[in-house]
Amino acid sequence: ARGQDDEFLESPRKRRCRRGLQLALLGLLTSALWAGLLALLLLWPELMSQTVQELRVEQTQMKSRGERMAGNSGPEPQGTVRLGHMASDALGKLKEEVAKLLMEIQMSEGSTCNTCPAQWVSFQQKCYYFGESPKRWLQARYACEDLHGRLVSIHSQEEQDFLTKRANKEKAWIGLRDLDIEGEFTWMDGKPLDYTNWQPGEPNNADQGENCVMMLSSGKWNDAFCHNWLDAWVCEQLATCGSPATSDSLDDSLDTGST
User: Fold this and answer.
1) Where in this protein does the record put region Disordered (predicted)?
2) CB 176 within 8 A of CB 210
3) Do residues 42 and 34 lie in contact, with contact meaning Cβ atoms separated by under 8 Å?
4) Could you tell me the mean pLDDT of each successive run of 10 residues in the chain, 259 residues long?
């Protein structure tokens, strides 16, 4: 009977030891999982580099054909050209999501993420380039891609106010269009149309075929023919973390801080 009592008294201790061992193993597995995820995020650009190079070669080959089609106000290039754009856009979005995750990690460790290339302007962890040369919409899109960015996508009143203040031309191309389905406008970054700033009465698709969007000097938007020549276009890209912006890089926070 005493042996049974001893066994009964030892059982709780055994259960506690077993539970502690399980928790320790769970902690080790969780740590290993996070380490593997971080390694994947860090190595992902290298794993995808070959695919990126192949897409860039294909994109270069497509550009000459795409430029010739820029004068059309109808849908974007079809067939191989359009498939190439879709693949390139999807890869770009995937790389951007990885970059955003890395940015969040660095910001959580105290890094400041507002560094932009020369001649780009920093605002809310993004960089903006204000191009000033006559281009059609598709040419403006290619110009932004050549600068490792894309035509700007606008998602808040604060961002719109910043762009309105910085833009110095009467009209500028932005990354909004309804080339695929009439009336269904989509941003270049693939995010929902969660903010709009249309000029009263717009979009009206006047004369049929106004499938690309420009920003007026007032900041209001207007749909227009994609083959129109505008003197300005706005690109965007993610800012980077680490060292402060160089003297060649402008930061809008300087202006807002001085008011």
Assistant:
1) 62-81
2) no
3) no
4) 50 65 71 68 60 54 51 48 59 69 73 89 95 96 96 97 89 95 92 95 87 96 96 95 52 46
**Looking at domain 121-258, which of 3.40.50.300, 2.60.40.10, 3.10.100.10, 3.40.50.150 is its CATH number?**
3.10.100.10
**3-state class (DSSP) for residue 173:** strand
DSSP-assigned letter for residue 255: H
The span from the CA of 220 to the CA of 236, in Å, is: 19
pTM above 0.85, yes or no: no
Q: What is the pLDDT of residue 7?
A: 47
Report how far Cα 130 is from the mean position of its chain's Cα atoms: 17
Computed from CA positions of residues 51, 90, 209, 172, in that sequence, does the dihedral angle turn out positive or negative?
negative
How confident is the model at residue 89, as a pLDDT?
63
* Res 91: pLDDT: 65
**pLDDT confidence of residue 34:** 74
Look up tokens 């860039």; give the residue: 56
Distance separating alpha carbons of residues 48 and 112, to the nearest angstrom: 27
Round to whole Å and give the CA distance between 106 and 206: 47
Nearest CA to 223 among 169, 186, 168? 186
Spatial distance between the Cα atoms of 88 and 90, rounded to a whole number of angstroms: 5
